[in-house]
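Hey team,

Filing this mostly as a record. A colleague (T.K.) asked me to run one chain through the structure pipeline before their review meeting, and I want the input and output archived in the tracker in case anyone asks later how it was produced. No errors, nothing strange. Just documentation.

Input sequence:
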Amino acid sequence: MGDLPLPYRTVATIGRLGALTWTEAAAKIAAASASLRRGVSRRTDLVVVGHGAHELLAAGRLERRLAQVPAPAKLISENTLWRLLGLRPALSQVERPFTLEQIAQQTKLPLETARLLALFDVLETDIEGRGAFRDLVAGRTVAKRLAEGATLAEILAAFHRRHGADLPHAGTALAGDDQIKLPLPEAGNPTADELFEAAYIAEEDGALEVAEALYRKCLHAERRDPTTAYNLANVLGALGRNAESRAYYERALGMDTKFVEARYNLAHLLDRMGDPAGAKQQLVAAVKADPKYADALFNLATHFTREEDLASAVPLWERYLALDSASEWAEKARQSLSICRRLMSAAASA
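Output structure:
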């Protein structure tokens, strides 16, 4: 197994993987000199849509999660990940003359549906998103099923049931010691993956007490998962249990010191708890770890402005505006920058 390509060092998943458990996938990805995280963050380079993500199509859950993928990150299918890791053979060297736009046009599928079919490996496109004649046939079959009244979620579930939850045709890549055995969860004994997904959905739906219980169970099953600790901290903070929330943010940061979202949310919590110095310290660390973290720059600039440390505030406002010049927050940043400059000018001429 070789390393993942250099741009793809932090991998995240959306939905459950079909072929491996999250823990097994994390071990394979670690062996490829990369790391796997449960949630998408600012440091995510590669986002994998698991075959189980079809369960998220209802109520627009999948659409919301795809919208949260940061712009620089690459979005790929589960089978594409296995090919990058050498756990599936490379795509056959057939001609792939069709773009997804052309497949959508010729099959009369909405382009967004064609993209989802590629992310779920129904269309077997290459890393550049180009398909072969077989993908036209697959697209037409899906279009027919949709016209007959089937939902996309039903079609995807049937497709992955038919093709199984293993890594078929992987040949010698799974032979000998590298053979992957898929554990089947016992009834009433959900896996950490299932617990995390259920907790995430409960949190999305505002069922915070349920989410808390499920995140705690997930963290008990996988004690070294910073994302679960971070999500639990968010839930506890929303429930008003600030001291517990702080402890779990700190636990997440103890596992991953560069988890900038945890630092940002901890800073917000510390402000709420009346500890502005502690909040500023976390924001400084977040900006150091991620100099383009606009929200952290905004809040840190606000701290320095309140303290009348204008020499520190001005360059932070300028850095923020270089990243965001159009939002309503950009207008507030421009106003604050203008005030800081006027005060500095007045102090210099006094």
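Quick notes for T.K.: The chain has 16 helices and six strands. The CA atoms of residues 310 and 343 lie 8 Å apart.
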